[in-house]
Amino acid sequence: MEKKLDKIIDSISNEIKDLTSINDLNQLKGKYLGRKSVFNDLMKELKNVPKEEKPKFGLLINQAKQNIAKMLEDAKTNIEAKMIEAKLKSETIDVTLPGKTFNAGSKHLISQVIEEVEDIFLGLGYTVKEGPEVETDLYNFEMLNLPKDHPARDMQDSLYISEEKLMRTHTSPVQVRSLLENTKQEPMKIICPGKVYRKDDDDQTHSHQFTQIEALVVDKKTTLADLKGTLLFLARKLFGEEREIRLRPSYFPFTEPSVEVDVSCYKCNGKGCSMCKGTGWIEILGAGMVNNNVLEAAGFDSNTYQGFALGMGVERIAILKYGIDDIRAFYTNDLRFNKQF
Ligand code: PHE
């Protein structure tokens, strides 16, 4: 009987070694401790054992059973630990692997230049105003001193939507809107960035849609000297502190007098090079003192109020600053171009 018990213990310790799953373990448990286990035969044999030896063998069998139960319990802990280990291993993250890179977007050059100009003017106490891109003929032309038959309308080939509505050809109608809004006629300093449209065929230097920034100052004492100071400040902020400006007489219906503004060439410092076509100067924008007719049309008394306005092409500024040779590059969204800035 003792030998048989030893044999049982031997065989289970052998089988237990190869266990890999809880399922197998449960089967083994059935085999050794279940209702039809190997111990059943032993119990039958116990009947034939002399009466005085029965307690001894009963005790041995019980001990063996307890032993087995303990072995199975240990095996279970072991298997569970191994399973956790395997799971952890399969789920390990290798923190040294290179990460996934995302394509982070960046601001378009046009937006960057708009923000740069906005920063310059915000620093001077201006506020930013916006207006609609579909404008009325009244605000885009008439109230800017361009009546219906005015020849200067030809300066800006317009895209009309109806008799009275058009895609705005410049940001100047925001001047009109802002003057009309200012019913208390308080001193005003505004800039208006935005898209404008012209009936142009697109080529290297023309686009049917481009971007302008307009500035308008109206107060009781606003002079050409104020305009000149503002232009010099702007030109130096944009093109370098060593720059000078030059004002040439020009014509815009909404300003009088009107000027064309040149900046001294930042490439040759005014000596003359291919950039400035040998002149030492580069044209950057148009400006002037607000025409009395514009002030009056918006209800401002031109004997009391004066103002100046300027309008620049954002693409032109960007082209000059960054040496871009084709305006279409701004709109074709070639990432190789966009990413350079
Ligand atoms: N609106 C003018 C244009 O588009 C530019 C400009 C604005 C000129 C303000 C003078 C004053 O050509």
Topology (SSEs and partners):
Blueprint: H1 2-17, H2 22-33, H3 39-46, H4 54-90, H5 109-123, E1 127-128, E2 134-136, H6 137-140, E3 159-160, E4 165-167, H7 173-181, E5 188-197, E6 209-219, H8 224-239, E7 245-252, E8 255-264, E9 281-290, H9 292-297, E10 306-313, H10 314-322, H11 335-338
Parallel strand pairs: 1-5
Antiparallel strand pairs: 2-4, 3-4, 5-6, 6-10, 7-8, 8-9, 9-10
How would you sum up this structure, described in words?
The protein is α+β, with helices and mostly antiparallel strands and 341 residues long. The chain folds into two domains: 2-90; 109-338, Bira Bifunctional Protein, Domain 2 (BirA Bifunctional Protein, domain 2, 2-Layer Sandwich), CATH 3.30.930. It contains eleven helices and ten strands. It has a seven-stranded mixed sheet with strand order 1-5-6-10-9-8-7, sandwiched between helices. Strands 2-4-3 form a three-stranded antiparallel sheet. The chain is rod-shaped. The termini are far apart. It binds phenylalanine.
